[in-house]
Amino acid sequence: MWFAGRIVSSLAVLAAVSVVLFALTRLTPLSPARIVLGADATAEQIQAFEHDRGLDRSLPAQYSAWVAQLPRSGFGQSYITGRSIDLELLESLPVTVELVAVTFLLTLAGAVPLGLIAALTEDRWPDHLIRMLSLMAVSVPGFWLALILIRVFAVKLGWVPPIGITPLAEGWYAHFTSLVLPALSIALYYIGALSRLMRAAVIEVLGQDYVRTARSLGLSRGLVARYVVKNALPPFVSVAGMSFGYMFGWAIIIELVFNLPGLSRALLTAITQRDYPMIQATVLVVTAMFIVSNLVADLIQRLLNPRLRHA
Fold it and tell me: Nearest-CA neighbor of 163 among 172, 154, 175?
């Protein structure tokens, strides 16, 4: 029942986003016909363009027609290129998903151990150092950090390519190194934020009575640490799941800096050219990724916390 309710609420959120997005894209005064047909297009040509694509109908009628076509032909065709939007997403979405996945792995690899070290050395120099570094990480803009990383590690040291992505066919190592700088540009912020959260959660659990009782009974430090980490994970998992969804928004910006052929290129091109179907499809895909990541985080929380399963 809980899972079914979450699915229904997630679909409701997605539907609400689609309605708002559909309305906002069509509030712009400039018709896409002007961009497609050019500034010299006559009024008759613009009227014919809008009639063929249903843009001269009311907003509810346009939205109903768009929803009705989704099961049959997907997101439809681009106003500008005439290509299937589904095919364009299949070309650009894997790049963004891979970038976000690498970013998330780097975030977990950095935030969890740093948070644990800071908690176990509370108010000592490792704790102060990690807290200072995490504060710096959340204060640095991602796009500025990306430019610095390019200048240092790509231009001066030549360790990684400055822009673009190396195809996997040229080797997994070259492919991975081409994603390191973009992923690190996003991950550093979340490492700083999530390490502070992990520190606070572990310190709170360490202060609980059952932890002091376990220590007084002579349980091994490893066993105590295992239960401490397990009980500190639920709030961390919840925020980490939300962070995974937010990373898609950051990825769109970072992809521009590194000239990656991901969703950012498709979205910005669609915005500048008033390609309504492409804008809708791209934003809805990002929204769906955010909703799915939160749903997965809630499932993991229920596995870690028996009280949620029996509530």
Answer: 154
Structure tokens, 273: 């050219």
**84 φ, ψ (degrees, to nearest 5):** -65, 130
At residue 77, φ and ψ (nearest 5 deg) are -115, 150
Dihedral angle over CA of 149, 152, 155, 161, nearest 10: -40
Convert the pLDDT of each residue in 238-292 to its tens digit: 888 888 888 888 888 888 888 888 888 778 878 777 788 888 888 888 888 888 8
CB 116 within 8 A of CB 202: yes
CA distances from 3 to 92, 154, 238 (A): 31, 46, 16
Banded pLDDT at 103 (limits 50, 70, 90): very high
pLDDT digits (tens, 9 = 90+) for 114-148: 998 898 888 888 889 999 999 998 888 888 888 88
Could you tell me how many helices (H) and strands (E) the chain has, helices first?
A: 13, 0
> Nearest-CA neighbor of 262 among 290, 286, 241, 294?
286
Burial label for 268, CB within 10 Å (0-12, 13-18, 19+), is: middle
Separation of CA 52 from chain center: 35
In this model, does residue 191 exceed pLDDT 90?
yes
Convert 19-46 to b/e letters by CB count within 10 Å (16 or more is b): eebbeebeeeeebbbebbeeeebeeeeb
pLDDT at residue 310, as a whole number: 57
CA 204 to chain centre: 29
CA angle 223, 227, 233 (to 5 degrees): 140
Tokens representing 223 are: 């066993």
Half-sphere exposure of 200 (CA within 13 A, CB side): 10
4-8, 90-94, 260-264, 306-310: which has the minimum mean pLDDT?
306-310
